[in-house]
Amino acid sequence: MKAGFEGAPVSFLLFVTTLSISFLSYFNFFGKDFFISTTSSRYRPWTVLTTQLCQASISQTVYSLLLIYFFRVLERRWSSQVFFNYHLVVFITTTLFSFLVVRLSGSFLSLVSSHTVFLIYFYLEVLPIMKINFTVFKVSDNVFVYFSYVMIVLNNFKSSPFYIVIGLIAFFITSFKPINTLFVSFSSSKLQKLFQCVNSFQTPFTFVQTDKTQRRQLEGDFLDEMRLAQQNGRQQTTPPQQQNIQPNREQLIQQVMDCGFSREQATFALNNTNNDIEAALAFLLDNANY
After folding, report:
1. Closest Cα to residue 90, out of 67, 115, 47, 122?
2. Where does the UBA domain lie (predicted)?
3. Tell me: the pLDDT tens digits for 161-192?
4. Cα angle vertex 7, ends 4, 20, to 5°?
């Protein structure tokens, strides 16, 4: 699995909500005292931090997500001796903290463990080395990133059954491979259709000027289609005795606007091409950054 949130499938993010519901109930049931005693025996300060994060506010949650994402990207880019040195420093720091954590008062402990800086200790000390087993699921350190912080978000909406339903649905989706494959392929096809629909609304003014030869070909085809459409429109709507009459200024502007441009663009292009509609269209296509 990739480090960080980049490339994480939606189905997997939904699946971890099921684990989040279970862990949320587990943490809230035992409370702070249980994890303080556990930390004292195991010398693992991350358990105390997890308890505090269950009670985090929305702002703390959002900031924590950004912080964790930053360090996951940092690990991907610095997966070398440089990042290992950070782990070494953090390991020493967290060892000292685990020795002192049980000697702190409850209020001071809550303040320290919920501090933003300590989130760095939690991330760097736990995630690269930790492997845990939850019932029949083997959860790696990367997975722990997801359900830990989804758990924090869900804690603010724990009274709503909506998230439980989502978690159960996601559980069945990700547990059975045929269903998982069907779900991923279905969602991919729907997203592809959505992007195609969005692209269909783009005007010629939004052409990306990467290949000049291809762009010129598109411009030529576009002008030919517009010229043919204008000729057909004149023949259908204009009496034969009036076909040689030149359109007025407003009609020219409207014809350019019918091609997908704004009124300001049409007016500017006609002013620079002496009211020649074909030259105006070519001008707009050549100046796509206008």
Report:
1. 122
2. 247-287
3. 554 454 455 555 555 566 555 655 555 555 45
4. 65
